[in-house]
Specification:
The protein is an alpha+beta fold. Helix content is about 40%, strand content about 30%. It contains twelve helices and 20 strands. Helix 3 (about 60-65) packs antiparallel against helix 4 and helix 8 (about 300-320) packs antiparallel against helix 9.
């Protein structure tokens, strides 16, 4: 029998499993996919996330297999004018005053390997889809399905870390309030070396162009490019190779076609679940909150949830008391609303601006912030998620 069942073997679920296992909690993880997800997902790790993951030796692996990004910028593509933010200013507030660019799938593999080598008692079952569950005063019984048939598992608590389409959240029938924005994002990767052709790029670049907006994020072997459909394109047309090729040629004209290594499309949502705990069932990560990817806060927020929740679950198990789980909600839900959604929403709105004069004013304001040490520090404390994490820990 497990003490805690976790639905979802993504960053939040596996981080939670690791933190619980370190404290002697018996954990089983159920993942609907047959293998770890290798799709294009998050790729930015913020300073406080690196601080948190350091204790388990995950951060050195992310650094070794990723890129240390000391700066990020917002820029005018036509002129190269940019507001560049130097994360080194955070050196007195974090052990990692930089972002790390590394694929989410690599983090998942590092966490799985660490669990296998250090906590083999943790069972991670791939290909096990949660069908539903029932609660009693003493625990939760979860029904799942795999290729071998149906299974029934019992534990003291169930945690839904199963993503934006969470089966756990849907079974609870909780409101997931917020909005879906009209734009479609096309994410593509290419080995083309943009840094050799566009002057003064950072590893993370949010760009305004005459035809819209795009972002360029560098990984060790690839560049991730976020694009948007043209006004006369359907989402399906915008995902076609020819459309992506046309937009990449606008960014950096080349005589040869671009090599695409992956592509996907997605809509942008901003939502937070009505409550994080229902009885002995708790939500974390994308199952609890989803946001615009602008600024790279979604995965990081889920990892922060997991660290917070792990301690609360241990206390709840030791004392047979649900109150610590309410404390988790009080600490983490306001951060999702007031920091993650608010900041990522501001980032999205800024980059969606089309008026040239307003763009110029926004860039000038960002340049002024970047050039003022006091303002730059506060801006980076906020955008690097340090302020939000401190707020959550200070909430009683």
């Amino acid at each position: 029998m497990s003490d805690v069942l976790i639905a979802g073997a993504g960053p939040a679920g596996l981080t939670l499993a690791l933190r619980l296992a370190r404290q002697g909690v018996r954990v089983t993880v159920l993942e609907a996919l047959d293998a770890p997800d290798r799709d294009l997902r998050a790729s930015t790790f913020h300073p406080p996330t690196l601080d948190l993951l350091e204790e388990d030796g995950i951060t050195p692996q992310l650094i070794a297999h990723g890129l240390v990004a000391p700066t990020w910028q917002v820029r005018m593509h036509a002129t190269g004018a940019a507001a560049v933010f130097d994360l080194g200013i955070l050196r007195d507030h974090t052990r990692h005053p930089y972002r790390v660019q590394c694929e989410q799938s690599k983090l998942v593999n590092f966490l799985l390997a660490h669990l296998a080598s250090h906590h083999p008692e943790v069972e991670v079952r791939f290909g096990h889809r949660v069908l539903g569950f029932e609660q009693t005063a003493g625990g939760v019984t979860v029904e799942s399905e795999s290729a071998e048939g149906r299974h029934s598992l019992h534990a003291a608590y169930l945690v839904g870390c199963d993503g934006a389409k969470s089966a756990v959240r849907k079974t609870l029938d909780l409101g997931f309030e917020g909005e879906t924005f009209p734009e479609i994002v096309i994410l593509a990767t290419t080995p083309f070396p943009f840094h050799e052709h566009l002057a003064n790029l950072s590893f993370i670049n949010y760009c305004w162009s005459e035809t819209g907006t795009f972002s360029l994020l560098r990984l060790p072997q690839l560049w991730r490019v976020s694009l948007y459909p043209d006004a006369d394109e359907t989402p399906e047309q915008a995902l076609e190779d020819a459309s992506i090729e046309r937009k990449l040629q606008r960014i950096c004209p080349q005589p040869q076609p671009y090599l695409l290594t992956a592509k996907r499309s997605y809509r942008i949502h901003q939502r937070v679940v009505a409550r994080y705990r229902t009885g002995r069932v708790v939500l974390a990560g994308d199952a609890a909150h989803i946001n615009s990817p602008s600024g790279g806060m979604g995965m990081n927020g889920g990892i922060h949830d997991a660290f917070n929740l792990a301690d609360k679950l241990v206390t709840a198990l030791q004392n047979d008391d649900l109150a610590p789980l309410d404390h988790y909600e009080r600490q983490r839900r306001p951060v999702a609303l007031e920091h993650v959604l608010a900041q990522s929403g501001r980032n999205r709105a800024r980059m969606q601006e089309r008026d040239p004069a307003r763009r110029a004013a926004a860039l000038a304001d960002l340049q002024a912030i970047a050039g003022d040490p006091a303002r730059a520090l506060q801006h980076l404390l906020n955008t690097s998620m340090i302020t939000g994490l401190r707020q959550s820990l200070a909430t009683s």
